[in-house]
Write a structure and sequence with these properties.
The structure holds 2 protein chains of 2 kinds. Chain A has strands spanning 4-7, 10-14, 19-25, 32-38, 45-51, 56-59, 62-67, 72-77, 86-92, 96-97, 101-106. In chain A, strand 9 (86-92) and strand 10 form a beta hairpin. By secondary structure, chain A is mainly beta. Chain B contains no helices and 11 strands. In chain B, a hairpin with a 2-residue loop joins strand 5 (42-51) and strand 6. Chain B is globular, with a radius of gyration of 13 Å. Chain B starts with a strand and ends with a strand. Classes of the chains: A mainly beta, B mainly beta.
């Protein structure tokens, strides 16, 4: 089955700085890579996704890059704001999630 | 939460008792999932359903059973709860995993087994 590793487990940045979270996957047949944001006490919500026929996708301050050869993909958040503080999960394959990254943005 | 409700939202029970969690959707999505979330383990798939009466096991299915008698409802049952099943349980739905696995999650059920 698919295996997803996510790093780092915690990330603290100053407001306005960029944040990068990386994930690697094991199954080369995986073709869909979503990122979810989970705020305290709530369920995860999709924030951006990418399919294997695309190398990069951007939505305002959020971008995702995919390297199929190396089997890794990354979430980039620019100009971070305190409301970006949350737990972020990557996923690959049918329903395999990374262990999550707790992002803290300090004002 | 994309028309997904979970009940109860919180439950405290004792070891050995049966527990049923309910997920209800109003989106008419074909696929439904049950996950558990524990510190350090992210989200782990328990069972999923790909249609009425069609279910399959996930990564951590031992000790759990599911049923789906209607499109909108997916039940998760702990036949005899154990302390290791203390967790937060999330239901999710998906329209067409073949075109990508976007899943929409419910608000979660926090279960404490004493």
């Amino acid at each position: 089955g698919e295996n997803v590793e996510q790093h780092p487990s915690t990330l603290s940045v100053q407001e306005g700085d960029s944040a990068v979270i990386k994930c690697t996957y094991s199954d080369s047949a995986s073709n869909y890579f979503p990122w979810y944001k989970q705020e305290l006490g709530k369920g995860p919500q999709l924030i951006i996704d990418i399919r294997s026929n695309v190398g990069e996708k951007k939505d305002q301050r959020i971008a995702v890059t995919l390297n199929k050869t190396a089997k890794h993909f990354s979430l980039h958040i620019t100009e971070t704001q305190p409301e970006d503080s949350a737990v972020y999960f990557c996923a690959a394959g049918k329903s395999t999630f990374g262990d999550g990254t707790t992002l803290t943005v300090k004002p | 939460d994309a028309g997904i409700t979970q009940s109860p939202r919180h439950k405290v029970t004792e070891t050995g008792t049966p527990v049923t969690l309910r997920c209800h959707q109003t989106e008419n999505h074909r696929y439904m999932y049950w996950y558990r979330q524990d510190p350090g383990h992210g989200l782990r798939l328990i069972h999923y359903s790909y249609g009425v009466k069609d279910t399959d096991k996930g990564e951590v299915s031992d000790g759990y059973s599911v049923s789906r008698s209607k499109t909108e409802d997916f039940l998760l049952t702990l036949e005899s709860a154990t302390s290791s099943q203390t967790s937060v349980y999330f239901c999710a739905i998906s329209e067409n995993p073949g075109r990508g696995e976007t899943q929409y999650f419910g608000p979660g059920t926090r279960l404490l087994v004493l």
